[in-house]
Amino acid sequence: MNVAVVGVGQTKFGEHWGRSLRDMAIEAGLLSTQDAGIGLDDVQSLYIGNMSSGNFIGQEHLAALIADQLGLSPKPAVKCEAACASGGLAFRQAYLAIKSGMADVVMVLGVEKMTDITGEHAISALMAAGDQEWESSIGLTFAGAYALIARRHMEMFGTTQEQLAMVSVNNHKNALNNPFAQFNMNITVEDVLKSSMVAEPLHLLDCSPITDGSAAVILANERGVSRFEKPVWILGSGHGTDTLALHDRKSLVEMLATRTAAKQAYDMAGLSARNINFAEVHDCFSINEIVAIEDLGFCGKGEGGRFVEDGSIAVDGEKPINATGGLKAIGHPVGATGVRQIVDVVRQLRGDSYNQISGCEYGLALNIGGSGATSIAHIFGMVGRK
Amino acid sequence: MNVAVVGVGQTKFGEHWGRSLRDMAIEAGLLSTQDAGIGLDDVQSLYIGNMSSGNFIGQEHLAALIADQLGLSPKPAVKCEAACASGGLAFRQAYLAIKSGMADVVMVLGVEKMTDITGEHAISALMAAGDQEWESSIGLTFAGAYALIARRHMEMFGTTQEQLAMVSVNNHKNALNNPFAQFNMNITVEDVLKSSMVAEPLHLLDCSPITDGSAAVILANERGVSRFEKPVWILGSGHGTDTLALHDRKSLVEMLATRTAAKQAYDMAGLSARNINFAEVHDCFSINEIVAIEDLGFCGKGEGGRFVEDGSIAVDGEKPINATGGLKAIGHPVGATGVRQIVDVVRQLRGDSYNQISGCEYGLALNIGGSGATSIAHIFGMVGRK
Questions:
Q1: Considering only CA atoms, which of B380, B306, B302 is closest in space to residue B343?
Q2: CATH code for B126-208+235-381?
Q3: Which positions in chain A touch B121 (Cβ < 8 Å)?
Q4: Of A124, A258, A307, A339, which has the maximum CB count within 10 A?
Q5: Nearest to A354 by CA among A234, A207, A176
Q6: B313-361 pLDDT, tens digit each
Q7: Which superfamily does CATH assign the domain made up of B3-118+210-225 to?
Q8: CB neighbour list of residue B190: distance below 8 Å, 6 or more residues apart
Q9: Using CA atoms in the order B66, B69, B75, B80, what is the torsion angle rounded to 10 degrees?
Q10: What mean pLDDT is predicted for residues B226-240?
C-alpha cells in the first residue's frame, strides 16, 4: 500500500536560548497537523528522531514525553536514534509501521536542543556518533574525521579548497529567502577561505553550525490519504550502514552506507539518479555534499568538485542540491535534520518552496549519521506507485 | 503474516568489569543465531534496544556499531529507546518491520553497560527517563518515584511492606538455577525488611540492581520460518504511553500505559488475562510488579499484595510471575531487559527453562519504561494465528 507525506511543519532553526526542546517539538508537531488539515485525534502513532537529548538536556524517554506534550498519550510513541541520521531513521520506521498495517496516520517529529550545553561539550556529545574506543577516546572530532575524508578526496581527485567552499556559497545563497534558516546571508569563496581553520582543510564556513530546532511530517496510507489535498508519495526508501571507525573502511572517499541506501531506494522506486530532479543532501561539512552527490550517482566518483564548480548544483543547474540552504545555512539540529530535509523536498514537489525549482517531478532526501556509518535515502514524487 | 521468535541468546547478567558493551552484544547476538541454527548472512536487519549508552559509555549510534561488530554491515540497523522499555520497543519495531514486508528474518538485540560510571552517576543517568523539568531537576530519583507509588498503594489498599518483600523473595527463589542471573541466592522477608532503606517504604532488596548484559532474539515470518525447529509465535503486541511526570497522572496506583498495551495485546491475540499461563513482568521495584499484575488483569486493582502473599505468583501457583528471577534477581541492564524477558518467555514455552512451569500454552512479557510512561506488552504461544 502506498504511503504519502500529507503535512509538514518546522520551527525556525537557530539558537533558541529561551525555548525548551518540548516547546519546539510542540510547535513543529502542531504545524504539521495544521498543514495536513487534521487534528491530533487523527494521529495514531508518533515517531521521534533525536540523537542525544540525554547528553544535551539530561532527558531520555523523549517519545513518551513529546506524545504527552502534544496530547497524544496513551498512543504508541517511538524514539529512533542513528546519530545525525536519527530524523531519517524515524521517518523510515514510521513508514514501515504504516506498511505493517498497524496505523493509517502517523506523525514523525525530529528535534534537537543543542545550545543548553557549552560548544565544547556539544562537540564531545556529537563525537559519541563516532567510535568511542577507536576515535573519540583519542581525541578525533567530527571536523577532524571529515578533514581526513577531504584530504584524501583532494589527493585522489584533485578536489580543491575552492570547490569545497563553493558548496557553502551555494547553500548560503539558497537560504536567503528561507524564513526558517539559521543564516540568511550571502558568503563568497573568499569568505570561506579566510574563515578560521577548524581542521585543515576545513574552515569554519565549511562546517554546519550547532542549532536548536524541530521539524515534523504527517504520513498517511491510501486508506487515510483520500481527504488530503497534496499528498507527496514515498516512492523509494533505503537504509545502509557501515563501520563507525574510518580506519576500518576500504575507502575514505566513498560511503558504502550511502551507496547501499541509494541503490535500495532507486530500485524500489524504479528510478535512477538521472530521473531525480533535485535532492536534499547531508552537508554537515562541505566535503560530505561532494562525496554524497558522487555516491548518489549524480556524477562519477571523483567528479563532485567539478560538478559543484560548473554550477550543476545551483537551483537553475542540472541537479539542484540543497535548494533551501542545506545543513550549512538552515542549521543542523542533529535529530531534526533528516525530517527537515523531507519537509523541504515536499515543499518543492508541491511547488511552494522558498526557493522553488521549476518543473520538478522526483526529489530525493539523503540523511547521513556520523562520518557515514548510517545513510537513509528516500525518493518522493507527486504520483504514487502500484 | 504470522511472525515467530526462532532463536534466543543472552550473556550472563552482572557486573562485567572486564567486558565492553560491544563484546557483550556480540556474544548475545551470536548465541541467538546459533540457537536459531542460522548464520549472520541470513539476518536481514538489526534492531537495537538501548537506553543510554551516550551517558553510560559515551557512545551513541549503537545500531550501526553493533551491525559492524557482528559483520552485518551494510544492512539496516535501528536503535530504539524508551528508557527501561527500550528492549521491548526494539522488539515491537522489528516485528512491525517484518509485518511491513521489508524483511523476513531480523535480529533484535538489547544491551546496556552500566558499570563504567559510578553508581551515583548511574542513578542520575537513569533518572533521565523521568521528566527533566518537573522531576529529576528537583532531585527525584526512580526509587523515590516508585516509593510514592508504593505509599499510595499501601494507603488505598492496605498493601504491606511484607507483601512488597514477598515479591523479591519469590523472584530470588526463582533465579536459584538460572545460570545467567546476577544473583543466585535465597532471601527472606526479614532480609528485605532489614536491608537499608532506599526511599521509604522501599528497602534495598525491593530494588533491582545496576547490571551489565545483553540479550538477543531472532524473528522470522512464515516464509522464513519453515526451517526453524521450535517457533514461538507472536500472538499479540501492544504499546501504550503516559505522562512522564507522576503528578500529571489521574492515579498513582494504576498505569494507563500498561492497561493500554495489555488491552491491545489481548485484543490482537483474542485472549484475556485468564488465558495467560505465566508472565515476565517489569519488577524494577517490588511495587511495580504488584501494580503491573493488577493492570494486566491477573487480579483486581488493589488485590496485588494479597495475590503475591497467597502464593499465586509462585512457579506452581495460579499465575507464575518472573519464573526465572525477574529484574530483581536476574539483574536489570535497562536496554536489555525487555529482550531478556522475551528470551525467558520463549524458553518456558519451548519447555527448556531453568525453572520450568508445567503445561504452559500462553506467556506474556511486560516491559515498562521510567515510572510507567511507556509500556510494551507481547503475548506468545506455540501455535500461530491466522
A1: B380
A2: 3.40.47.10
A3: none
A4: A339
A5: A176
A6: 999 999 999 999 999 999 999 999 999 999 999 999 999 999 999 989 9
A7: Thiolase/Chalcone synthase (3.40.47.10)
A8: none
A9: 0
A10: 91
d(C-alpha B253, C-alpha B302), whole Å: 8
The neighbour count for residue B255, using CB atoms within 10 Å, is: 30
All 3 cell numbers of residue B218? 531472532
For residue B199 the three cell numbers come to 526511599
Cβ within 8 Å, pair B129-A52: no
Q: In the structure, what pLDDT confidence band is assigned to residue B186 with cuts at 50, 70 and 90?
A: very high
Residue B72's Cβ-side half-sphere holds a number of Cα atoms within 13 Å equal to: 34
Which position among B16, B153, B282, B332 bears the catalytic label? Answer: B332
Q: Which residues of chain B lie closer than 8 angstroms to A101, CB-CB? A: 99
Q: Which of A99, A260, A370 sits opposite B61 (nearest CB)?
A: A370
Rounded to two decimals, the ipTM of the complex is 0.97
Which of B80, B84, B207, B360 is flagged as catalytic? B84
Cell of B381: 504461544
Q: For residue B139, is it left (φ>0), alpha (ψ between -120 and 50) or beta?
A: left
Position B265 scores a pLDDT of: 98
**CA–CA distance, B177 with B92 (Å, rounded to integer):** 29
User: Position of cell 523536498?
Assistant: A345
Confidence class for position B229, pLDDT limits 50, 70, 90: confident
CB atoms within 10 A of CB B134: 15
Predicted confidence at residue B19, as pLDDT, reads 97
DSSP A206: G
Q: Is the peptide bond before A201 cis (omega within 30 degrees of 0)?
A: yes
CB-closest option in B54, B79, B100 to A54: B54
First to last CA, chain B: 8
Q: Per the CB < 8 Å rule, is A81 touching B76? A: no
- Residue A133 cell numbers, joined: 574506543
| Chain centre to alpha carbon of residue B348 | 15
- Closest-CA residue to A232 (of A35, A40, A39, A70): A35
Residue found by looking up cell 498513582 in the block: B252
Active site residue B84: yes
Identify the CATH assignment for A121-209+236-381 out of 3.40.50.1100, 3.30.10.20, 3.30.565.10, 3.40.47.10.
Answer: 3.40.47.10
The pLDDT value recorded for residue A21 is 98
| Domain-wise residue ranges, chain A | 3-118+210-225, 121-209+236-381
In the predicted structure, residue B385 carries a pLDDT above the cut 90: no
Low-confidence ranges of chain A (pLDDT < 50): none
Q: Distance between CA B132 and CA B185 in Å, rounded?
A: 36
Q: Which residue of B has its CA nearest to A85?
A: B61
Q: E strands within chain A?
A: 3-10, 45-49, 77-81, 105-112, 197-199, 202-203, 213-221, 232-241, 278-281, 362-369, 374-381
How far from A283 is each of A158, A297, A327, CA to CA, in Å? 20, 16, 6
Q: Across the interface, do B129 and A61 touch by the CB < 8 Å criterion?
A: yes
Task: Give me the phi and psi of B321, to 5 degrees please.
Answer: -120, 135
3-state SS of chain B: helix, strand, coil percent to 5? 40, 20, 40
**What digits encode the pLDDT tens for the residues B252-298?**
999 999 999 999 999 999 999 999 999 999 999 999 999 999 999 99
Which residues from B are below 8 Å from A75, CB to CB? 240-241
Q: What are the strands, taking DSSP E only, across chain B? A: 3-10, 45-49, 77-81, 105-112, 197-199, 202-203, 213-221, 232-241, 278-281, 362-369, 374-381
